Amino acid sequence: MEEFKRTLKQQIIDALNLQGMKPEEIQDTAPLFNEGLGLDSIDSLELIVLLERNYGIKIEDPREGRKVFESVNVMAEYIQANRKK
Amino acid sequence: MCKVYVTGMGVVSALGLGKEENRSALLARKSGIGHAKYLNSSLVDKLPVAEVPFNTTAMLPLLHRQENLQQSRLVVLAALAIQEALCDRLGPSGKPSPLTGFINATTVGGMGDVEDVYDSLINPGIRDNLGAGDALDCAAGTEQLARHFGFTQFVSTISTACSSSANAIMYGARLIRHGIIDRAICGGVDTLTRFTLNGFNSLKNIDKQPCRPFDANRNGLNLGEGAAYLVLESEKSINITGATPLAILSGYCNFNEAFHPTAPSPEGEGAYHAMKGAIEAAGLETGSISWINAHGTATINNDEAEGAALLRLFGKEMPAFSSTKSFTGHTLAAAGAIEAVFSIMSIRHGEIYPVLHFNDPMPGLDLVPVTEVKTGIPVNHVLSNSFGFGGNNASLLFSKYA
Amino acid sequence: MLDPVYIRASRAVTAQDTFAANSLPAVFSDAINNTLSYLQPAYQDYFTIMQLRRMSRITRIGMVAAIECLRDAKLTHPQAIITGTGKGSLSDTEKFIHNIMEFNEGTLNPTPFIQSTYNALNGMIGLHHDSSSYNTTYVHRGFSLEHAILDAMMHLHDGEAENALVGSFEEITGEHFVIKEKMGYWKKENISRTELLQADTPGSIAGEGTFFFVLQKQPEDAMVRLNGMKLLFEPQEHQVREQAQALLNANGLSWNDLDVVLLGNNGDNRFDHYYSNFASQLSDETHQLAFKHICGEFDTASGFALWLTAHLVKEQEFSNDLLLKKGSRMRLRNVLIYNNYYGSHHALYLLQECQ
């Protein structure tokens, strides 16, 4: 799981084009949105694309996405439970 | 400052070609939203749109003259609307033309013509469709139309996303007021394209059902296509053309709210200032407004922000308001001009067009739009809102010409 | 007639090292494969990782140019933000077209779509400077910057604003170069910028440039005064001359009063006649300068001439590399810019040293 979370963090960095950020700078439990990393609604749409392209998980409603993207921990668990690839 | 009169107008939308077809559909509560027949996209079965119900070839012969015009859907829709706008104001012949400007607006210009041939355009070895290379911007269509109608003295094109043609009308009016031109043909056009349909789909704000502006359960917009143009004239120009004013463009305001690249502030700061600015520019009070043709795209964010702005500005004395996007879809750069035409029709015929598919007000916002056609009532001042990406908000105010 | 306006600050990002020192460098880069591509500023100094994440090439350049221009003018919140661009962010437009094809209209990244919007940069500048104000974008090829300036002049004339941030931005991409190459925009043979203006063949070299200006109503601390402009779409050759004459007359000047004329010669022999005919009006004392062999050809290249003029009048000198024909005037007071974009969009600007 630790290795997976590191991979996921790198994927987040690539998907959101966070140039120069390192995976270890993103905390497992810190909120990704608002006061945490500071992501917004457009990032949430980018992360939905990431889930579909990398894991075959389709999310139609962006509001559902925001729950999944609460933190890296929540996101990693959701992916492991729902991944199609 | 001199007054700016509207002396002609023309419109093409999913509701039909021309003002009468559009008005009949509005009065009959007949929406133009459905499944596309002509747009080349694999999303057409999934996402409803408001498509002009004719193919481009069938519309071309409706133009009085076809010379110089390529068979581009963008250009043909715009040309039909301009042709209608010019017929309204045909004054006595034989008089010299006033100095006329053509201010066009579009969000993606000739993208509809380009996207099907893009692969060949960027292939150095293929020399087909060379002409389409120039259509990959906003000005190509404007220039064809300018040459076709003889508006080459002053041309411009504006692109501010969904507020584009409202800004074109505003620019035309300001140029007239400053005496730079005497008359302006202002408006906008956009066609349905894969580019924009996929763009809004990537933002996940397209409703899979017909859109429900200002409804608690709204779930996004439907894209539409169309074109509309107004003829704006100064008093000096009217003395030359002999045209009869249809209405007065009495106020306008552009206000960028600097909140977020795509979303409005929840309080509708930009919408509030745009509406307030337009009413103040006209020297009117909020109580004078008869109808607000709202931006009302039916996206979660827009309607909440616009609703909050309406409540803040008008409070308990809320004028009748609705969104005709439930008929025409969101026609992007054409929306401001199409809704300007509807606003002037409302003033001239003393009627108000409703919103469709409204059931419940948005939570926390005590706002109920007009849901039935109202006729035989005095309509003196109509506010028309157009808000877009990048926080670009524009409001136009049209008043009765006594 | 609109009141003159004053250029308080002026910034340029081009293929040349014009940005860092805000001046024309002593040594110029040459075109590679008939393209003069941006020398990109160091963005890291301006933005955090989070701010940079959704900025594409042209947005970054535009933001940096706008930020420095406002800083030069000691302005934090411009009262209007008005831009012009012929093509907007081509990279984003192309990326989104390709994404649609590659992923079969499936789930797509929204960012290139958002950034492809022509007014995206305007919105970003407003956001960055927390400026809620008048904000619009003109997208009419060789008139894009001119309409942005005209719009600002109306705002300043009315007193609706005391100042306005006005600018233009343009980029060239590999794909767009090919599209235009097939349409005859560029020279068939590779050419050095030093030989461009004498080429006598069709086509020019591609360029790109981003220019920002702070315009203001009052003369305080201004670089130069913009007295007026004229725009002509597909005119007859004599009309250009007549309109220039009208512009001069309206400002109480004659041809002989011009100290410097900047001409948009781009080495394309299909359009050279406009410039040679125009130049035949000029006194031998007037310096004739060119600029497109330095910045290349693009929709909003007139921005480079405007930037050059602001500096030339303020510093009372110009680089000999710009010279088409040397005049004799020592004092550089009255400047006329005449540019046309492939014979279609003709723009005239009359500028004057501030008193």
Automatic annotation (TrEMBL), chain A:
Residue ranges constituting the Carrier domain according to the UniProt record: 1-83
Gene3D superfamilies for the chain: ACP-like (1.10.1200.10)
Stored InterPro entries: ACP-like_sf, PP-bd_ACP
Pfam families tied to this protein: PP-binding
Domain of life: Bacteria
NCBIfam families in the record: PRK09184.1
Protein name, entry field: Acyl carrier protein
Species assigned in the record: Flavihumibacter solisilvae
Automatic annotation (TrEMBL), chain B:
Keyword annotations of the record: Transferase
Gene3D superfamilies tied to this protein: 3.40.47.10
Superkingdom: Bacteria
InterPro entries: Beta-ketoacyl_synthase (IPR000794), Ketoacyl_synth_C (IPR014031), Ketoacyl_synth_N (IPR014030), PKS_Beta-ketoAc_synthase_dom (IPR020841), Thiolase-like (IPR016039)
Domain Ketosynthase family 3 (KS3): 1-400
Similarity comment text for this entry: Belongs to the thiolase-like superfamily. Beta-ketoacyl-ACP synthases family.
Name of this chain's protein: Ketosynthase family 3 (KS3) domain-containing protein
Native source organism of the sequence: Flavihumibacter solisilvae
From TrEMBL, chain C:
Keywords: Transferase
Beta-ketoacyl synthase-like N-terminal domain segment(s): 47-177
Keyword Transferase: yes
Pfam families: Ketoacyl-synt_2
A molecular-function term among this protein's GO annotations: 3-oxoacyl-[acyl-carrier-protein] synthase activity
GO BP term, example: fatty acid biosynthetic process
Name of the molecule in the record: Beta-ketoacyl synthase-like N-terminal domain-containing protein
Native source species: Flavihumibacter solisilvae
Organism lineage string: Bacteria, Pseudomonadati, Bacteroidota, Chitinophagia, Chitinophagales
